[in-house]
């Protein structure tokens, strides 16, 4: 199967996935599926990319993927398989090595490994960004909790101060 290497076009021209998705009037998720080979690129969108980037020789940006492995099966065997029960303890290079070792690679399929590696690298990157985002939320929540704790302490001090003033004037705070 021959596909247009949109990822290469994007990276060579330093264009974001969102910018191309907007230009094609498709979702960024759908473009990601197209780039990874999970979804076909509609002909009209292919032509729009070629025209937009003024690509005269599309064969220069076409890659032949004879038998891209089913990534869902790889994911199932990776996450659900017995070999990877404790995958959380593996580093990214170890994960990539395990996946690479689990693939049956024919000499004409050598382009598949970098594609899968790029996909996994993007996945890890997005997960790291998600973790950073959640860590930021936790930090904000902790700061808010600390601020509320300070406010609570200030309120208690104010109540103690007012009780003390009332007591000096002979007024029982609990009866007011």
Summarize the structure in words.
Helix content is 63%, strand content 3%. α2 (17-24) crosses α3 (28-35). With 176 residues, the protein is mostly helical. Residues 66-87 have low confidence and may be disordered. A two-stranded antiparallel ribbon has the order 1-2. Among the domains are: 1-64, 434 Repressor (Amino-terminal Domain) (Orthogonal Bundle), CATH 1.10.260; 134-175, no CATH class.
Determine the strand fraction and express it as a percent band.
under 5%
The H-and-E topology, N to C, reads as EHHHHEHHH
- Overall mean pLDDT score? 76
List how many beta strands DSSP finds.
2
Short description:
This protein is mostly helical and 176 residues long. Helices cover 63% and strands 3% of the residues. A two-stranded antiparallel ribbon has the order 1-2.
What is the secondary structure topology, with strand pairs?
Elements: E1 2-4, H1 6-12, H2 17-24, H3 28-35, H4 43-52, E2 62-64, H5 71-80, H6 92-102, H7 112-168
Antiparallel strand pairs: 1-2
Keywords, separated by commas or semicolons:
176 residues; mainly alpha; 434 Repressor (Amino-terminal Domain); two-stranded antiparallel sheet; 2 strands; 3% strand
């Amino acid at each position: 199967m021959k596909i247009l290497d949109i990822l290469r076009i994007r990276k060579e021209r330093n264009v974001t996935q969102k910018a191309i998705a907007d230009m094609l009037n498709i979702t960024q998720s759908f473009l990601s599926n197209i780039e990874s080979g999970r979804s076909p690129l509609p002909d009209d969108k292919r032509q729009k990319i070629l025209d937009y980037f003024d690509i005269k020789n599309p064969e220069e940006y076409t890659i032949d993927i004879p038998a891209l492995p089913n990534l869902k099966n790889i994911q199932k065997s990776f996450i659900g398989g017995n070999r990877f029960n404790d995958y959380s303890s593996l580093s990214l290079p170890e994960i990539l090595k395990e996946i690479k070792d689990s693939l049956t690679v024919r000499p004409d399929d050598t382009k598949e490994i970098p594609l899968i590696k790029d996909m996994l690298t993007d996945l890890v990157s997005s997960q790291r960004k998600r973790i950073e985002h959640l860590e930021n939320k936790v930090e904000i929540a902790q700061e808010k909790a600390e601020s509320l704790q300070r406010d609570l302490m200030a309120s208690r001090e104010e109540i103690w101060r007012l009780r003390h003033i009332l007591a000096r004037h002979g007024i029982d705070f609990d009866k007011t």
